[in-house]
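User: Design a sequence. Structure:
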């Protein structure tokens, strides 16, 4: 165990020595990789802030069930039990056609227009408030409930007032897919940048590598410093990208505060929690390691 640790510490020290030899080039590569990582990191931060808000939102879609005009009042009121059997936990409110007309006259100021119609054109209706849905992902259940209510005798139509629930779920799904595609594309860019950086380093140290092989150095001993260089490049770039995202959140929050105030909200974008931050740093270091691994396997094998 001590030998293994000593070898890795030596490899890490060698990587740091090579970095100190050309700090300008290393810092420039960090900047390039950080720019590539900043976009997906910003996307992850935005989704992480929006996700709790969408999941914790009390989603209570409503269904308006309109009864056929020729249906007797007794049959219309008896539909409440059938509606209750379809949605046991829902709040069901019956509105008679007379009450609906009173509300229309009171709210719209169209009493003169309605009076010209002669008789009440409005049907009896129910408002079914579904309180069983706790997040947008469950919004699709409302379609089956609406279909069952449409099949009841005496029902003219059912209006679903929860289209926004599906739009929210669909929008978040599109954003996640777009972020995944963007992350995959930029991850390829990161691997390519690290690959090219390590390739230049291998070419610079070609004579040193050949001498090491002549005196009996193993491939693992030679490869290890390059692996650490790639991982360090990815790790440092990830840290710079996260720092850049944290700085961008400040002006964004000032703009959001003005908008949120119009809706009596105090919504603000918060940085990622420590666990998510550590995961992104580990991911960026892993991308650097993958780029170094591919380069070493391709170029150092030619020196055997």
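Assistant: Done.
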């Amino acid at each position: 165990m001590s030998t293994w640790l000593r070898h890795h510490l030596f490899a890490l020290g060698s990587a740091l020595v090579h970095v100190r030899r050309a700090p300008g080039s290393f810092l420039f590569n960090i900047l390039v990789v950080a720019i590539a990582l900043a976009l997906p990191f910003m996307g992850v931060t935005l989704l992480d802030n929006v996700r709790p808000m969408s999941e914790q939102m009390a989603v209570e879609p409503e269904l308006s069930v309109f009864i056929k005009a020729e249906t007797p009042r007794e049959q219309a009121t008896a539909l409440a039990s059938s509606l209750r059997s379809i949605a046991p936990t829902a709040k069901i409110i019956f509105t008679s056609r007379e009450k609906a007309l009173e509300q229309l006259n009171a709210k719209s100021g169209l009493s003169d227009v309605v009076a010209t119609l002669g008789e009440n054109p409005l049907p009896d209706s129910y408002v079914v408030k579904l309180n069983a849905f706790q997040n947008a992902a469950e919004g699709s259940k409302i379609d089956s409930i609406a279909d069952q209510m449409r099949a009841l005798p005496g029902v003219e139509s059912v209006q679903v007032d929860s289209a926004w629930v599906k739009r929210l779920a669909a929008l978040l799904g599109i954003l996640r897919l777009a972020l995944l595609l963007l992350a995959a594309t930029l991850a390829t860019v990161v691997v390519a940048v690290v690959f090219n950086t390590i390739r230049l380093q291998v070419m610079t140290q070609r004579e040193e590598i050949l001498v090491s092989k002549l005196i009996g150095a193993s491939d693992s001993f030679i490869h290890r410093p390059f692996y650490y260089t790639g991982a360090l490049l990815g790790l440092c770039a990830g840290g710079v990208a996260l720092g850049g995202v944290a700085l961008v959140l400040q002006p964004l929050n000032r703009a959001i505060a003005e908008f949120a105030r119009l809706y009596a909200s105090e919504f603000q974008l918060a940085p990622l929690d420590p666990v998510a931050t550590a995961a992104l740093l580990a991911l960026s270091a892993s991308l650097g390691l993958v780029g170094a691994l591919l380069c070493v396997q391709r170029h150092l094998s030619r020196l055997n």
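The chain has two domains: 2-55+174-303, 62-161. Residues 11 and 225 are 5 Å apart (CA to CA).
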